[in-house]
Write a structure and sequence with these properties.
Blueprint lengths: L1 H27 L7 H9 L5 H35 L11 H16 L4 H23 L8 H25 L1 H12 L7 H5 L2 H12 L2 H7 L3 H6 L4 H23 L5 H13 L3 H25 L8 H18 L6
Length: 333
């Protein structure tokens, strides 16, 4: 046990160091390359130059947002896999993307709400409402919210909301112009102001998530056994659903629907720590941040000087991985 603890701690520290390298690489690399010296001078000897302005107003906010969004989506994906007992599940199963998109399009179409603050809160509320709707629907019946019922309810509600969204976009060009960039999923052009609104909720969700590792370990032994050991499985499920809503909903509200992060990262982490959720949760958060930072850096070079939305880059990276997992039955051998 002690050897496992030391080895896992060493790997976790290595991942944190890799995250730091990726974070600073995100600040320094791009169409306008800069240096670490310039980064330091931005804070110690700011001169208003183009490089200093880019670092302060574009690169640093972008790296912070990518880190927070990547970690949040990865942890939310891990919890969705716990809830549904499906290793290919993601936050979209709860209608996160579909609910957020629909409420934004509805607000633009009928109320002409187009401010950044309104968009963030509407997408967050839409994600939360659709997720609660799915959980309430799947809880009906004598068996409660079983993994299969959650999955079926989520897919059905997401399909319905997506159809409504597409119908509204077809008839409303203004809404299409406003929401198209957001729908692609991107950390480009996002300001820290948009993150600050939801960051306190996300941080609280992170802290609670780290405290649930042992409870999830017991829960994954089987509901009957976990109940026999005195665990309130219904409360744990509700807690996990709320955490998914806060983490995925907050991430989507800031950066739009960025797919596959919540599927890929937990599977990668399982190679290091198997299914010990006391370790999986922190590992998943760090690796999720690393993945989105690397994807964002890659998106700057794919079509340079134009930039590719990071949501498209994660899809390109994740699609082969997803196919591989599906062929292996959802697990890495």
């Amino acid at each position: 046990m002690l050897i496992h603890f030391r080895s896992r701690m060493i790997v976790l520290i290595a991942c944190i160091l890799l995250f730091v390298v990726c974070f600073f690489s995100s600040i320094l690399l791009g169409y306008t390359d800069t240096s670490f010296t310039n980064l330091i001078h931005t804070f110690t000897n700011f001169n208003g130059s183009n490089e200093h302005l880019i670092i302060q107003n574009v690169r640093i906010p972008r790296a912070i947002i990518a880190s927070v969004v990547g970690a949040s989506l990865a942890i939310a994906g891990l919890f969705m896999q716990v809830l549904t007992k499906n290793p290919l599940a993601s936050p979209s199963v709860l209608g996160i993307n579909a609910g957020a998109s629909m409420l934004i399009v509805l607000s633009i179409t009928f109320f002409n709400l187009q401010s950044v603050t309104a968009t963030i809160w509407l997408s967050f509320i839409g994600a939360a409402l659709s997720s609660l709707f799915v959980f309430g629907l799947s809880s009906l019946g004598k068996d409660g919210a079983t993994p299969l019922k959650i999955t079926l309810a989520g897919v059905s509600i997401a399909a319905m909301f997506s159809s409504i969204t597409q119908g509204l976009l077809v008839t409303n060009e203004v809404a299409l112009d406003q929401v198209l960039f957001w729908l692609a999923g991107s950390v480009q052009g996002r300001s820290l102001d948009s993150l600050v609104l939801v960051l306190p909720y996300i941080v609280v969700a992170w802290v609670i998530s780290l405290a649930l590792g042992s409870k999830i370990n017991t829960f994954m032994l089987g509901e009957d056994l976990s109940k026999a050991l005195g665990q309130n499985t219904a409360m744990l499920k509700i807690t996990l659903v709320v955490l998914v809503i806060v983490l995925a909903g907050g991430a989507v509200s800031v950066a739009g629907p960025i797919g596959l992060v919540g599927i890929i990262v937990p599977q990668i982490v399982r190679m290091f720590v198997k299914n010990d959720y006391r370790w999986m949760i922190p590992f998943t958060g760090v690796v999720g941040a690393i993945l989105l930072l690397l994807a964002d850096i890659a998106s700057r070079y794919l079509l340079m000087p134009e930039e590719t939305p990071v949501g498209i880059t994660t899809a390109v990276i994740g699609a082969p991985f997803f196919i591989y997992l599906a062929r292996k039955g959802g697990t890495i051998k």
